[in-house]
Design a protein that fits this description.
It is a single chain. By secondary structure, this protein is mostly helical. The termini are far apart. The protein is flat, with a radius of gyration of 20 Å. It has helices spanning 3-10, 30-48, 55-85, 93-112, 116-135, 146-150. Helix 3 packs antiparallel against helix 4 (93-112). 68% of the residues lie in helices and 0% in strands. The protein has one domain (27-142): Four Helix Bundle (Hemerythrin (Met), subunit A) (Up-down Bundle).
Amino acid sequence: MTITSALARLIPVREASAHCDIPCGIYDPVSAKIAAQTVQKMVLRIESLDDAGDAASANTLSRYITVKEEHAELCKHELRVLWADYTWPGTDADDIAARFNAALKLASQCKQTVSMDNAEALVAAVDDIATVFWSTKGVEYSDPNASVRYGV
């Protein structure tokens, strides 16, 4: 028996999972924005995919869908962490909750559909949250690299 296994028997420890177990206090909505833009880009690629009906086209479509799904879920994760862990000083808790609820539902709709309207609304909702977030720090929000990051 090792010391570690002996201690584990004496002191049961549950595994914890969090954005930052310390907590670090470093928050930035940009990670949710990048995930939302990835969803938007995958919708664009899915909509423009040439349906040749062959295995290569099916494979490409499958990969685009997988990335869209993963990043919609990542966006939800990043938003939940920001909502739950940041203190949101000087804001109305009900207003913040409504903004996050709307954004989380949009991310779910992006998983359920292939809709550019939903994807654009998700990006806009994340930008809206980022605007409020940065205002709590006395900074005017802007994302000057958004269009370059998104690309053509």
